């Protein structure tokens, strides 16, 4: 345990910069571990997990363009993943009536079951990686991050 230190005389901007760097290092480390676990334990990737997660949130499906917007990636990235999921029977594409170019992607029952398994493992991994945070720490950190996100939304 670190000893208590007197308040620093450095500017708040420097302290905020250090917090940002710690957040970035933490997120990158967690993401690296999640990618490794997905690859080694399930033979899958984080982008594929993200696509399945988005489709699980929208059981009626999403237009391919909406899916790429939702994930903030290019249509090409999403198309390749959905194609592979479709080949494996985990997803399907349905034509949008009245728009011959648009398709809606959605998970099949097999895809939903596969995602539920992945999602439970993902939750367990995150829980383990963040086990040093108490419920109070989680609530406080979440509230602080919400205020940052709210501010970003106001600026957009």
From TrEMBL:
Which molecular-function annotation in GO is an example for this chain? Answer: DNA-binding transcription factor activity
What are the record keywords, sorted? DNA-binding
One of this protein's GO BP terms? Answer: response to stress
Which Gene3D superfamilies does this UniProt record tie to the protein?
Winged helix-like DNA-binding domain superfamily/Winged helix DNA-binding domain
The HTH marR-type domain, residue ranges = 9-150
Pfam families of this UniProt entry?
MarR_2
Q: What is this protein called?
A: DNA-binding MarR family transcriptional regulator
- The protein's organism comes out as Roseibium marinum
* Taxonomic classification: Bacteria, Pseudomonadati, Pseudomonadota, Alphaproteobacteria, Hyphomicrobiales
